[in-house]
Amino acid sequence: MSDFLGTDSNSNIEVVDSSGNDIMRDGKKPVDKKDMIKNVAIAFLSVMLILTFFSNTIMNYSLPQVATQQISSGSISPQIRGNGVISAEDPYNVTVKETRKISGVAIKEGAHVEIGDVIYYLEDKESEELKNAREKLDDMETAYEQSLFSGDVPDEVISRVRSGHTESFDSYQIKLKDVNDRYDAAKAVADAATKAVQYLEKLQSFDTNEVNYNKDSYSYEDALADYHLASIEANTSMSAEEKADARKYWDNIKNDNKRETTELTTYANQIKTSYDQKLLEAKETETKAKKDLEEAEKDKTELITSIKTEISLCDARDKIKDQKEKIAELEEASVGASIKSPVAGIVSSLDKAAGESVSADETVAVIQIDGKDMTTSFSVTNAQAQKLKVGDMARPQNAWMFSDDFKATLTSIKNDKTDPSGKKVLTFKIDSKEVTPGQNIALAIGERSVDYDMVVPNSAIKTGNTGKFVLVVKSKSSPLGNRYIASNVEVSVLASDDNYTAISAALDGDEYVITTSSKQVKAGEQVRLANE
Question: Which strand (E) or helix (H) includes residue 70?
Fold first, then answer.
């Protein structure tokens, strides 16, 4: 028989059977305790699996990432290779002196020309340079005439300049020396006169001060005598005779002081008169010396200005002459003109075609002069350069494109200015009719290639305390997949070139070696492959 029991104030009803098991709570089916335990276990195992997976993934991403390459057989070419642009030794750049228009091209690139051969034909037309040159001449002549007759130029200078005469620097030097000597002498006299006045003024002040000092001394003695005389009169212990003797003594002193003071006054008037006369004469001498100095300085300034003006006018005159000669040359070249070769050689480039305009001093053609060498150069490491010597021969890397007559001779090995401590510049002399200046050429110099059983990239070779070694990647299986471990293997380097190195080591020859890594790898460390 079931019992019905009320449970709480919210009138939730709980049904309990006679055995005490819950039948229903709030109208819901009760939860089985075994199912609950099973669900918790499944959730725990799932969480552990997820944590294991992510910890393995996180660990993998924290490992150094490496790139590998399999050891293989191959050939090593210890040749030194490089690319350079062929340049001509002192190539001749053909230019024109004015802007002209090309009416025709007389030759082709690669053609041989002799001195005087026509390269381009030009249209008969006055150039802009000729028009501008005439306008410039007018401006130059106007400025020259205005300066010449400005009113500030001495007549003798105008005459010399107009006559075409140009004073020599020696003449200017002599004139400047003379005026400088006069100026220096006048300055020395003026300075001495000024110092004489200053000396007399100081001496007068000293003597006057000495007289005044002596007068003050006598005044002091007079005051002292008056004091003693007053004391005598007030002294009641002295007899009349003693007082008379004492008064006589001090009166004599006062009389002597009066006499000396009078003589000093007379002396002071005498030295004042003497110094006033001497200073008057000295200042007159100083005034005259300063006036002479001003005249000398004026002469010096005028001469310097005159020389500068004369040099400037002569320069302007000569430039006008040069401008007239330039106009004459432009006028001569403006009609029926052509551009001719001034040297004999091979035309390596033609920069203009018919109908195009060419500017003044613009290069229109380049000629490789007969008898001049062609060269090329490129940089190599110091280690590579040590294997070479001047006189070694090089061959083009694409030798099939050249005949057997091609020669490239190493002529110099010098420091590379961009990296003097690490690189050298190799310069080669090129002897071939199949190349021209400006052409790019690839050269190889050194030994021929040799086949080896084990070859690895240069980046796989490491250097340790005991010598050279490589890091080999070894695979180990685990429940979570393969793990890759770096192993150190010592090697002997047999040969190397720019890209690969031949090695000898205790290896089968099919292992994978580490070439690069995201961070430093040590032997025994686990790594992550770049392609996984």
Answer: strand 65-70
